[in-house]
Structure formats: C-alpha cells, structure tokens
Design goal:
Mean pLDDT: 89
CATH superfamily of the largest domain: Periplasmic binding protein-like II
Number of helices: 12
Radius of gyration: 23 Å
Helix content: 40-55%
Oligomer: single chain
Number of domains: 3
Strand content: 15-25%
Distance between the termini: 59 Å
Length: 293
C-alpha cells in the first residue's frame, strides 16, 4: 500500500468526504487528485472504502481507518516533541478578514515574547472553528459568535461590533432612518450570504419594523461589499470594526436600535502558557481598539 494514499484516505475518513479533506490537508492538493489517488488505493486493495453520496465508510473502510488513525493523528505531536515540544506552538482558526487585519500585528508581538514561536492558521467561522477545537486540530479560535458555543467550548467576548449601512461617499442619504421612512425601498441592497449572523439579525429587525428590503447582491465578505458600494452598485450591510478601514469611496451610516454582534475568543480545555500569552496580547489589542472608537 502507498503511504501517501493512506494519508489521503485518513483525511477523507476523518473529515467526512473529499472536499472537506482538501480543506484540512496541511499542503496543497486539489479534490480531483485526492479522489484519483484514493481510488488507486481502493483498486490496489480490491475493495470500496467509502460511499461517496452520502458519505459513509464501508466495513473495510472502518477497519482500515481504525488501523491507521492513531499513526497519522499523532504525527503533529511527534514532530513537536522532536522539535522541542508544543510550548512554542499556536494553532489559530479565524475568518480571512481577521487573519489579514488583526493577526499579523499580534503574531509579530508573540515572536518578540516567545523564543522559537511558530504558528498555523486555518480559515473558518464559528461552526467550523468549534469542530476544529473539539477535534483537537486548533488551539484557539476568533470569530463572530452566531450562537451559544457547543458543549465543551469556552468563549470570551472581546469586542462588540455594531451594524452599519455603507453608501457611496457622495450619496445624499444622511442617515439610515431616512431609508426606513420610505414606503418602498427601491435601492439595491448588498449583503453577505443569508446564513451569516449579521444578515439574519438585520432581516429580523427589518421584519419587526414591518420593512421589506430583499438583498439584490450576496457577496462573500464585507470588504468586497464596500468595493461594490463604492462603484455605485447599491447600499451595503457591514459592521463597524475598529481598526479596519473598509476602503475609499464609502460612508458608514449607523443602524441605531439594531443588535450588535459579539466578536469572541473560542477554546476548548485548558490554556497553555503560550495560549495565555496570546490571550494577553489579544485583550491588550482589543482594549486599544475599543479606546480608539
């Protein structure tokens, strides 16, 4: 059996499918390559290891996974022991905008405080981050809290993020309330996907007020929304995030009376010394950002 094929099968089995495996394998490999190489493993063994749709391991797949899982799941810890221990490592999970805007500064400070400090970053929102924490694949997570954390996951609020509308800089709209007084809002609304907590809470408040304003464009991130607003494609829904500039050509209109979002630290189990150090730096940054509002 090819050891690399076994490793790919391990990730597929652990994460419940080929697409999920591709997101978690710690090196670049595309889904078609994973699928092809796992099929080669199945051909060499003469058995089917898992059903594709919906995903489920066959009896042979379960037997193989149980045999190899301890080896592959323990490689990271073995590497750390050989390098001198896990006391200088931090595995973080956070949305892309947090990785881009906040983490470089924090991680640079960690390097100054801890000799040999090294880290990994994984993209994710609260549900994905909680799964990583529960599986022991991440140490700390940073996310907008959408729901009460799952059993065994701890959280600590760092910031309150207040919703805003983005309008083009030269727009004549002075405040959000001017829009809500209209009999019918016919201006295009640009939001993230409907499942995002910001969008859910915004729509819930509109419904309470008897206002109908469906989204015209659904984009993947707030920074992208601001670019479309700047080009005059509509009014965007965003949050006022301290320390983050949404770009030129837009103005923020506060949404008074709308529920704020909680940006929180997430973790499972006990925090190590390196984790505590990061939390210290994180809370110091959060304090500075709040003071600068």
């Amino acid at each position: 059996m090819n050891v690399h094929h076994l490793e790919l099968f391990y990730y597929v089995a652990r994460h419940g499918g080929i697409s999920a495996a591709a997101r978690h394998i710690p090196y670049g490999i595309q889904q078609p390559a994973i699928s092809a190489q796992v099929m080669q493993l199945e051909d060499s063994l003469g058995v089917t290891l898992f059903q594709r749709r919906p995903f489920s391991l066959t009896a042979e797949g379960k037997q193989l996974y149980n045999h190899i899982s301890d080896f592959f799941s323990g490689l990271n810890e073995l590497e750390l022991r050989l390098r001198g221990g896990a006391e200088t490592r931090l595995r973080l999970a956070a949305p892309e905008i947090v990785q881009r805007e906040y983490l470089p500064q924090l991680l640079a400070q960690m390097r100054k405080r801890i000799k040999g400090f090294h880290f990994t970053l994984t993209h994710g929102r609260q549900p994905e981050i909680e799964r990583l924490l529960a599986a022991g694949e991440a140490d700390l997570g940073l996310a907008i809290s959408t729901d009460k954390p799952s059993h065994g996951i701890h959280s600590r609020e760092l910031l309150r993020l207040y919703p805003v509308l983005l309008v083009p800089e030269k727009s004549r709209i002075a405040q959000a309330e001017d829009l809500f007084k209209m009999d019918r809002i016919d201006l295009p609304l640009i939001t993230q996907e409907p499942g995002e907590v910001l969008v859910r809470q915004f729509n819930a408040e509109l419904q309470k007020r008897g206002i109908t304003w469906p989204a015209t464009l659904e984009l993947s991130g707030i920074d992208i929304i601001s670019r479309y607003v700047a080009q005059g494609f509509g009014i965007g829904l965003a949050v006022n995030a301290p320390g983050i500039t949404l770009g030129k050509g837009v103005r923020e209109l506060p949404l008074h009376g709308f529920k704020p979002l909680s940006f929180s630290l997430l973790w499972a189990g006990r925090l190590s010394a390196v984790h505590e150090t990061f939390v210290e730096e994180l809370q110091a940054l959060a304090g500075k950002l709040c003071a600068g509002r």
